[in-house]
Amino acid sequence: xxxxxxxxxxxxxxxxxxxxxxxxxxxxxxxxxxxxxxxxxxxxxxxxxxxxxxxxxxxxxxxxxxxxxxxxxxxxxxxxxxxxxxxxxxxxxxxxxxxxxxxxxxxxxxxxxxxxxxxxxxxxxxxxxxxxxxxxxxxxxxxxxxxxxxxxxxxxxxxxxxxxxxxxxxxxxxxxxxxxxxxxxxxxxxxxxxxxxxxxxxxxxxxxxxxxxxxxxxxxxxxxxxxxxxxxxxxxxxxxxxxxxxxxxxxxxxxxxxxxxxxxxxxxxxxxxxxxxxxx
Length: 280
What we know:
This protein is an alpha/beta fold and 280 residues long. The protein has a single domain, classed as 3-Layer(aba) Sandwich (Rossmann fold), CATH 3.40.50.1820. The chain has 10 helices and 8 strands. Strands 1-2-4-3-5-6-7-8 form an 8-stranded mixed β-sheet, with helices on both faces. Helix 8 links the parallel strand 7 and strand 8. The mean pLDDT is 95.
């Protein structure tokens, strides 16, 4: 088993922190908004014993460059595709959590036909946060722009309180797991102007129409939690539109994979052992 950490330079001259460990079929993980690749730390070791695991910090997040440009789903997806291509990865399982799920869907839409991505993971995500459809469990569902304005005010006027509250919402019953302090620290690594730029793009971008085009197997994991109170209803909507989706309903908070890494790793290892695909 090998492991390395390095900075990758994108085509628009932005440096991203990347970590790679293990060998075998590549699992590429995409984190949520205002987070970093460190959120996968409890999953990597167990997965890397049997797979190649690649994690990255999105531009503006974690230990990647804090550039003022490119904070759109399309540019984030291009960053991911450029990394996958540069590393020569094939037969990739691309797994996105929250915002990362929308990036994964955008990556499929823009670059899926090159055949490198042969499976997806959509974990506790909504494909359109502003949607007024009944399946959408985001707090700003129904185009609640006033709520987004309040979020902006809170983030800009009392950032520490905002981030403390946001971080607690990740966890089941707001119980922060032991050892998760580094994850809270990484929230502060994203400057507020970057956080707001990508969050605005996320709110306004509808990736739901991409779902029927996803011809590769897709592992959907979800819970009912404080971020998505009807996360399971939301996940069932994803399943209804995905041609080859598999849904597992779990328990725990928004970051359930950190709270119970063994359970999520078992599901992912089994899925990545048997599920492959391409364009139908």
